[in-house]
Design goal:
Heat Shock Protein 90, Immunoglobulin-like, alpha+beta, 5-stranded mixed β-sheet, 613 residues, 10-stranded mixed β-sheet, rod-shaped
């Protein structure tokens, strides 16, 4: 009796003749008279067969109205006629309002016997769902029915407690996932919410009546037939969508994603086909046949899917694989034990077979929830790293802006110094030209040419097309060869290959260019050399530049005249470079510059110490 009421075993339909069926009563021995045997039409109750009819005599022996409840097991449709009054019960009849929890659980058909009323009760039984059947004919009084329900509930309180916990866990999980989706707006939470929701609906369809509830399937019981396989197939579709989004398969595994898309389309198409099939034929046995082949196909595809993911050993993948494994084991145990006990008739002593897939689902949900939590943690860590990178970028931008502002200030200072000093010179020379016309005009011309050259150097150095060190050295080569050839000086210029691999800030390139230009100018004007050498080389840490001549030289220990040499030293100091000038009278001159590459990103300090013109 317990197995029938709890839907724990899919009882096969009784195929023996029901010409005579024993009728048992509970709580009615002194109040009614009833036949001990219900007589039938001789047919057996089977799935898809015609209805079976039973009849028996019933009499109320009291002066009070009596309620009698007819219970036949898990029979889909029970129709009863009593003295012209029709009533019904069964698994697939909607529960009428006002029915007690015990009536809903036992799926009874109620009779109302007036005082002294007697007559024949005619029953018609019909079965369409193979997961049920006729298990005997029982008549209960109200008190006896409630007592039977209380006894059943007490006897199996552990199981009922588990079912309530299971359903409560699913409801809590639904609320939690919905809350997370509202906060995070990630698709995997929406798919996960739908997946858990469909699983909860499936088990509600199985246990709503057994738990004495009247939520959905008690009011629309045919949904248990129409959606029996849909609620099993559709979770596979939602599962693939969840995994697809959770593991970011479209971006990380595009080859696997193409297969998953086809599987999803197939599952959706089969879901529509399955629903259309049951609506058109109302044949659960035919539906189950198709479902068996589809389930086998899904098993093979799932195996291939798991093997593919096993090749990519990632933490998130293990959450999915672990959840899939435990729910697969639970379903497998449920199917095996059902087959052995129901179809082979071997009693293993296992009463609650659906507990195995339910435990598997609980563990799967815990794995998926832990996986979502771990993914959220990874997302938060990545968010923090992104914020740190953004902060570093903002700092770098601030440094760059400061550097650019410094460059602007330096350019403005250079322009002010060069133009101002040169215009002052031109003004003085103009006065001189009033007295000495030839000398004054010549010096005005030289000052104007010098100013044009300095302006050209500044404009060239800030042009973005001249950012490379290679372009700078090409300009130095052009400047040097022009002067050397004009003075008839033999020269040798060597620049190491791959010099373009070096990266120097713009202000460093300007300093290097002006130091080399000043050294070359001094060589041409004052050295009286016949041969000059310019060398540029570098290694991992230092760039070396040198300008050497065989001219008359000078006393390097004496104070320098003019601003040329002090200006070179000042520019080297601003770069943190080492400038060395070696010379002796009659022994030529060598100017060497060593620029440490690891210091080339240092902020130029010339904004604090303006460069002399």
């Amino acid at each position: 009796m317990r197995r029938v009421l709890l839907f724990l075993l899919a009882l096969g339909p009784a195929l023996t003749s029901m010409a005579q069926t024993r009728l048992r009563t509970r709580g009615l021995d002194t109040v009614v008279t009833v036949d001990s045997v219900a007589r039938g039409n001789g047919d057996s109750l089977g799935v898809g067969r015609k209805a079976v009819e039973l009849s028996f005599f019933l009499k109320n022996n009291t002066a009070d109205t009596q309620a009698v409840f007819i219970h036949c097991g898990i029979v889909d449709f029970i129709d009863a006629w009593w003295n012209g009054v029709h009533t019904h019960g069964g698994n697939l009849y909607p529960v009428q309002r006002g029915r007690s929890q015990a009536e809903r659980a036992f799926m009874t058909a109620p009779l109302r016997l007036l005082p002294g009323e007697k007559g024949m009760v005619r029953l018609r039984l019909r079965q369409v769902d193979p997961n049920g059947g006729f298990s005997g004919l029982w008549l209960y009084s109200t008190d006896a029915l409630n007592a039977a329900w209380a006894e059943e509930y007490q006897e199996n309180h552990a199981y009922y407690a588990f079912e309530w916990i299971f359903q409560g866990f699913l409801v809590f999980q639904l609320l939690y996932v919905l809350f997370q989706w509202v906060l995070l707006k990630r698709k995997e939470y929406l798919y996960y919410f739908c997946y858990v929701g469909v699983v909860a609906l499936y088990f509600l369809s199985k246990f709503e009546s057994a738990l004495g509830l009247a939520l959905l399937f008690s009011h629309f019981p045919l949904l248990k037939i129409y959606l029996a396989k849909t609620l099993l197939i559709f979770p596979y579709f939602l599962y693939t969508c969840f995994v697809q989004s959770f593991l970011d398969i479209p971006n990380r595994y595009p080859a696997l994603n193409r297969w998953i898309v086809w599987i999803e389309r197939f599952l959706l198409a089969y879901t529509v086909f399955d629903l259309a099939l049951i609506l058109a034929t109302f044949n659960p046995r035919l539906q189950a046949t198709f479902f068996t082949f589809i389930l086998l196909t899904l098993f093979l595809l799932s195996t291939s899917f798991i093997v593919y993911l096993l090749r990519h050993r990632e933490t998130l993948t293990w959450y999915i694989l672990t959840g899939s494994f435990v729910v697969g084991i639970g379903n497998l145990l449920g199917q095996v034990f059902t087959y052995i006990q129901i179809y082979r008739g071997i009693d293993l002593g296992i009463e609650y077979i659906l507990v195995f897939p339910q435990v598997g689902i609980l563990l799967e949900i815990l794995c998926f929830t832990a996986g979502l939590g771990h993914k959220n943690q990874l997302a938060e860590e990545e968010k923090l790293r992104s914020q740190e990178r953004l902060i570093e970028q903002l700092r770098a931008n601030e440094v760059l802006q400061n550097r650019m502002q410094h460059i602007r200030n330096k350019i403005a200072q250079d322009l002010h110094d060069d133009i101002g000093s040169t215009l002052s010179s031109i003004s003085i020379l103009s006065d001189l030209a009033l007295n000495d016309r030839d000398r004054g005009l010549s010096e005005i011309k030289d000052s104007a040419i010098l100013l044009m050259e300095r302006m050209d150097d500044i404009v060239w150095s800030i042009n973005p097309r001249n950012d490379s060190l290679e372009n700078l050295l090409m300009r130095v080569r052009h400047f040097a060869t022009t002067l050397f050839e004009a003075r008839g000086i033999e020269y040798d210029i060597s620049i190491q290959r791959n010099i373009d691999e070096l990266r120097l800030p713009m202000e460093f390139r300007q300093h290097v260019y002006l130091i080399l230009k000043e050294a070359i100018n001094n060589l041409v004007k004052y050295a009286g050399a016949s041969h000059a050498t310019i060398h540029v080389g570098f290694d991992a840490a230092v760039m070396n530049l040198s300008v050497t001549d065989d001219g008359r030289g000078f006393d390097a220990g004496s104070p320098p005249e003019g601003n040329g040499v002090p200006g070179m030293r000042r520019r080297a100091e601003l770069m943190g470079a080492d400038l060395r000038i070696r010379s002796s009278e009659g022994g030529g001159t060598s100017v060497g510059l060593r620029v440490a590459l690891d210091k080339s990103d240092a902020v130029d300090k010339s904004d604090k110490h303006p460069m002399p013109g």
